[in-house]
């Protein structure tokens, strides 16, 4: 039974990855024909590729939505701790993004730049609120639920990999994998998907707000996509290397503080006591053909991206 649950979880993750892989071919031409405005196209894609498969999943499996998604209450102390964790994660995001910018341009920065003419509340809704709900429902909801009673370390790593893969972006690869692991632990510790939603929203939302402030300070609100589209090419390797070293030191400090708050979250939710009462299958097999095929698809995607960048 457990093996079937893991297989179903990995199969669902693989299907999402395939949908995200073919989406540009199907949706982009349609968006151009219909002249769908920037921002709305992102929301439509999220709904089509995440919400619709989720609805179909529950119709087919007939599983309990509340149980699978862990739609459980979360105490107010945990909410405050999770928000703090989200803010503490920002320097880690910068550091991991800088590493990948040795190879890949900052696409997400370019997307935020394209949205900067919109009201800030709309930017937050598009970049922070929608992903925080829909990505968490699929990844920390459906996929993670397949790993129930499997060692949390394995569950967090595999779901983190799927979270990384569905983004299909080399620049986001390291920090989406890291945060995928973090979000899985938050859900496991609190027993509620609202924990990962809150943290996800905090991370993305604060990035949007910070980008908006920097845009107004630096360019007087005029915007511009050039620095974002250039990525590493907007600075020298020496500048980027120095930036990586500085942000590494900052990230290490913030990571240590983040872990202190994770321990506080564990204490507030009495997670260690709960965890000790559960029996985990330590050597349980979690790797199967949907996972391996997903990995192959992702590797091909990244190689294609590199070839396109440096052709």
UniProtKB/TrEMBL annotation:
Biological process (GO), any one: CAAX-box protein maturation
Swiss-Prot/TrEMBL keywords: Hydrolase, Membrane, Protease, Transmembrane, Transmembrane helix
Transmembrane segments annotated in the record for this chain: 12-31, 43-60, 80-104, 116-134, 174-203, 237-261, 291-310
GO MF annotation terms: endopeptidase activity
Superkingdom assignment: Bacteria
InterPro entries tied to this protein: Rce1/LyrA-like_dom
Domain CAAX prenyl protease 2/Lysostaphin resistance protein A-like span(s) in chain numbering: 120-205
Name of protein: CAAX amino terminal protease family protein
